[in-house]
């Protein structure tokens, strides 16, 4: 009887032990599932209405969030980034991209805030180029020149948007068909741009395009950054690095002269981090022409190879931005034409040099400069390039 009784209690004890372990395992698995679900919930894309165009077209806003709380807002008008909230060294999330909080301000004249730029980013001299023996006349919208795709470039069209979520990122696919003859360009150009927000706090921008007729293409993103998160402050104390041994001097209308000048001994040497304000007001012909920095740097490294080409650091907030690209050039612009006339969402106006741009791209006026890399896209070819903006603190 004792043996039987002992076996019974042993069996009962084992059963209770197994049940307890099983419950603990189930609870643990449940907690893991809850954590995974919480992460998935943070990897979200939300769609909302941003405004109505004059022709009654609805403009949507998409909010992409990653697991760390970084938040990206994009609207279908111009594929514009309206805000990007990233943490500072104290963990405080603030917007670091200049923009507006309503469609009406984007419809008015503004310096391409947060926009996708095309067909051709930057300037084309006198709005003309010749391709396969045919001269094409483009819209003139910057003195005597063509700038950023023309009067109604990609920054002023409505893009079709398709959101999708992955395990480690959130993406927004934007598409647009630029018809033959639009702003003077030849060929029906099908364009796809994908914004991807990753869990390591990087914004990946991928561009693709195809055409049914030979044309020229140079796509870029025109975000204005201010890493302080306080747009009442200028950007002159930001430390910028540009991995480039040379830049492209410009003429009085900001068209490249065709020369490629070494940065050594000039205010354009950012191979080691320099504050933007260190040399910006020096007496220098090129700085005078650009009213500050508004030039294209010839990036080191092999074109079409993804490599780190630039960075920006704000000591006050600790925010650090790194830029990787496959492009051969980068336009560094220091908000020289911001003049306190454009409204900020929380009141006040955007003052002089309260934002800077680092636009990865082909060289300006490349269709007219035979010594610059080709920007021609032919039928059967795929235009494909990628740029990545990575954020951290230090």
Explain this structure.
The protein is mainly beta. The protein has one domain (45-393): Distorted Sandwich (Beta-galactosidase, Chain A, domain 5), CATH 2.70.98.10. The protein has helices spanning 2-42, 103-107, 285-290; strands at 44-52, 58-65, 71-75, 81-87, 93-95, 115-117, 123-124, 128-131, 134-137, 146-147, 160-165, 169-178, 189-198, 202-211, 215-216, 220-222, 239-242, 244-248, 261-262, 274-275, 294-299, 307-313, 319-325, 329-333, 357-361, 376-377, 383-393. The relative contact order is 0.14.
| Beta strand % | 35-45%
Give, in order, the helices and strands.
Answer: HEEEEEHEEEEEEEEEEEEEEEHEEEEEEE
- The count of domains is 1
Per the CATH scheme, the topology name is: Beta-galactosidase, Chain A, domain 5
The total count of strands amounts to 27
Q: Strands, helices and their partners?
A:
Layout: H1 2-42, E1 44-52, E2 58-65, E3 71-75, E4 81-87, E5 93-95, H2 103-107, E6 115-117, E7 123-124, E8 128-131, E9 134-137, E10 146-147, E11 160-165, E12 169-178, E13 189-198, E14 202-211, E15 215-216, E16 220-222, E17 239-242, E18 244-248, E19 261-262, E20 274-275, H3 285-290, E21 294-299, E22 307-313, E23 319-325, E24 329-333, E25 357-361, E26 376-377, E27 383-393
Antiparallel strand pairs: 1-2, 2-3, 3-4, 4-5, 6-16, 7-10, 8-9, 11-12, 12-13, 13-14, 14-27, 15-26, 17-20, 17-22, 18-19, 18-21, 21-24, 22-23, 23-27, 24-25
């Amino acid at each position: 009887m004792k043996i039987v009784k002992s076996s019974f209690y042993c069996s009962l004890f084992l059963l209770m032990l197994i049940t307890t372990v099983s419950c603990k395992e189930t609870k643990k698995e449940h907690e893991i599932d809850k954590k995974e679900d919480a992460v998935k919930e943070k990897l979200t894309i939300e769609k909302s209405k941003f405004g109505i165009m004059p022709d009654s077209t609805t403009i949507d806003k998409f909010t992409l969030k990653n697991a760390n709380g970084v938040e990206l807002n994009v609207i279908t008008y111009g594929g514009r980034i309206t805000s990007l909230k990233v943490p500072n060294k104290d963990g405080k999330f603030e917007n670091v991209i200049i923009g507006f909080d309503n469609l009406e301000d984007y419809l008015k004249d503004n310096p391409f805030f947060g926009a996708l730029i095309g067909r051709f980013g930057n300037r084309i001299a006198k709005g003309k180029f010749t391709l396969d023996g045919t001269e094409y006349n483009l819209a003139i919208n910057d003195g005597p020149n063509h700038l950023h795709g023309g009067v109604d470039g990609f920054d002023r069209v409505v893009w079709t948007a398709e959101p999708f979520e992955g395990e480690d990122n959130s993406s927004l696919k934007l598409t647009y068909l630029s018809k033959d003859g639009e702003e003077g360009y030849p060929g029906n150009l099908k364009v796809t741009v994908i914004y991807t927000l990753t869990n390591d706090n990087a914004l990946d921008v991928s561009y693709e395009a195809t055409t049914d007729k030979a044309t020229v293409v140079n796509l870029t993103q025109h975000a204005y950054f201010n890493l302080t998160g306080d747009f009442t402050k200028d950007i002159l104390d930001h430390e910028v690095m540009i991995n480039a041994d040379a830049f492209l001097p410009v003429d009085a209308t900001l068209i490249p002269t065709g020369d490629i000048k070494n940065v050594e001994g000039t205010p354009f040497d950012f191979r080691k981090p320099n504050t933007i304000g260190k040399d910006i007001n020096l007496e220098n012909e090129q700085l005078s022409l650009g009213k500050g920095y508004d030039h294209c740097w010839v990036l080191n490294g092999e074109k079409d190879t993804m490599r780190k080409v630039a960075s920006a650091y704000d000591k006050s907030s600790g925010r650090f931005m790194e830029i990787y690209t496959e492009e051969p050039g980068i336009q560094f612009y220091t908000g020289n034409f911001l003049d306190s006339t454009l409204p900020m969402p929380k009141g006040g106006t955007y003052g002089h040099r309260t934002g800077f741009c680092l636009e990865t791209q082909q060289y300006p006026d490349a269709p007219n400069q035979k010594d610059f890399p080709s920007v021609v896209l032919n039928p059967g070819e795929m235009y494909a390039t990628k740029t990545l903006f990575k954020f951290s603190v230090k």
